[in-house]
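Look over this record as teaching material.
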Amino acid sequence: MRDSRTLPAHTLGASASSSRRHRRPRGSTLRPSHLLIGIAALAVLTLVSVLTGAAELGWQRVLAELGAQLTGGVSPLSEREAAILWQLRVPRVVLAVLVGAALAVSGAAFQGVFRNPLADPYLLGAASGAGLSVTIVVTAIPQVTLGSTGLAQVAAFLGALGGVGLTWLIGRSAGPDTATLVLAGVAVSAFLTAAQTFVQQLRVESLQRIYMWLLGRLSTSGWYEVLTVLPGLFLATVVLCACGRLLDLLGTGDEEAAALGIRPGRVRALILVAASLATASAVSVAGLIGFVGLVVPHLVRLALGGSYRVIVPVSLLFGGAFLVGADMLARTVMAPAELPIGVITAFTGAPFFALLLHTSRRR
């Protein structure tokens, strides 16, 4: 029986390569503890955010109101205070959960498809497409409101999907690889952003309104916004969570995935469509909120390993928690004034992500 010292060098190389190829990524199993920690973080931040707001309802009275709703007891709030809580504050917190979850899960999917932890949900032109569409609507119809309902919302949703669709058409016509798709996304984003700037100059008085939308905002007039974003997010989440194993296989390379019976092109298209749907749904009700889809999946990867069977569902939970916390800061830091939530996510996400990159490089 020959030991490894008598084997040819090429045999040893093939054996080592095969071992690396079939080694399962660290943290490839989704454990109940992963979900429990994410659910706990989301629940705590959601409760604190519901108790906090510009209107002084009193956290004890809000807790009593929540208990009264669960047990059928007597509400300690007046009719006006109850309307503030259930028609403004609670829907806004729920919307923050949904938007944060949508951006984080789509960011995880983009990072898996492109095998790059620096990919984010706006990589293929969703942000520039939505920005151009909203700008056209606002300049053409000055009376339109930039709340999260109505024509501007529809324009943002269609514009985000249109930007991604244009990138896909250009990228696929130039070549089948993901690098070509990324370059097409850069070109489309630059073109649509230039078009948006040109349209803005046609009606300069609308610049402030458009700028505030571009910085991101979570405003509600009831539960309409929540019901609007929920279908797209639910469908995208089901697809992306089911594709966690396929994302792991794509990470081994197209040849390896094809050898295992996977069609990389079709899988990649399915995942990108689902992730773009989630991104468009989030953008349509909240504007452009950066760093959520970039930072959250990266943190989950560093903490739990590189398997997307873990990264996708856990990012969903922590993305919601992250944006709830950011929205709470946006509402309270300069109260009664309110900061755009995109400013908060940039202030917290950019330095933290730079620190992560520095520590990862040292490791």
User: Anything to note?
Assistant: The chain has a mean pLDDT of 85. The first helix runs from residue 9 to 22.
